[in-house]
# Entry
Amino acid sequence: MYFYVKAIHIIFVVTWFAGLFYIVRLFIYNREACDKPEAGRHILQQQFSIMIKRLWFIITWPSCVLTIIFGTWMAILFGSLPAWLMVKIGFVVALLLYHISLHFIYRQQIAGKFNYTSRQLRVWNELSTLFLVAIVMLVEVKSMLSFVWGLVGLFSLGLILLLAIKRYRKSRNQGK
# Structure
């Protein structure tokens, strides 16, 4: 039974992360549509609103809930909470807080309020990458992963992602 629950848990983790990665991209495109001429802006934002609502409520939220349900079930079947699993649960709680922050952005954008620039959203989007790496590394390497080296690796990855965003912005501005 444990391996079936684990397989279903992994499936919903994948769909949850797919939703988290794509929703922020849609937020970015929706925000950038504000800079278009009125005719195009209205059409784009109307389409993005439909896409955002469907992704958020048909894929991302259900995947989040089912990930938590099957993850909890799997932890019960596992029978204990080793240190690595407790750290992983800490990252999952932080991921849930990230998810909730995206829900606030969702509500703002659906209401036509754009409080974040596309650059800020791009940086915010990379947090899900850090969560994904941290959680997968904890699950797969468990106790072999040094806590200090794990933090150094996450910090380094974060810096690389920020540099990539900066480089992308520079190349995008040169193309204009």
